[in-house]
Amino acid sequence: MHTVVLVEGLSDRAAVETLARRLGRDLDAEGVGIRAMGGGTSIGRGVVEHGPQGAGRRLTGLVDRREAGSVARALHRAGLLAEPAVERLAPAGFFVCGEDLEDELVRALGVPAVLEVVERAGETGLWRTFCSQPAHRDRDDASRLRRFLGTRAGRKIRYGTLLVEALPLGAVPRPLADLLDTVGPLPGG
Prior knowledge:
With about 190 residues, the chain is an alpha/beta fold. The protein has helices at about 10-20, 45-50, 70-75, 100-110, 110-120, 125-130, 140-150, 155-165, 175-180; strands spanning about 5, 30-35, 60-65, 95.
């Protein structure tokens, strides 16, 4: 494996793998391994576990905005960033999502398309129940959808795949596109 992609969780890994597959890419054959670290603060552990870059090995990753500072500090400690600055993450191959990857996917698809995915997944009733709860009534649909995706064990992972399958290839969120471009150019890109 010449490239290790560090992502926060299993839903991120599912999204990256699904998009690569949709693009006709075989990441295993390309020497790319995706490691779900169990949260952004664990990416520092991943940097240590997978060793420094160089000698034909590259580290890259996808992180949520709230964890970007922690990741920058971890990369700095590992000698991969000259200074622990969030704005230095992208040139170092680590790409920052808005709130999280689900936020990026909801914005890229748009609320109506995401609700269609929820309907096809057979969860419209659960969605309506979720929206009627007092804690969620006053939120906008995009915020509710992001929260809904994380309310049941395995749902985020499932939707990491379903949302990317529904995504028009011309609307791939920038952090995801940049990540895949870093591990090899996107077809036609």
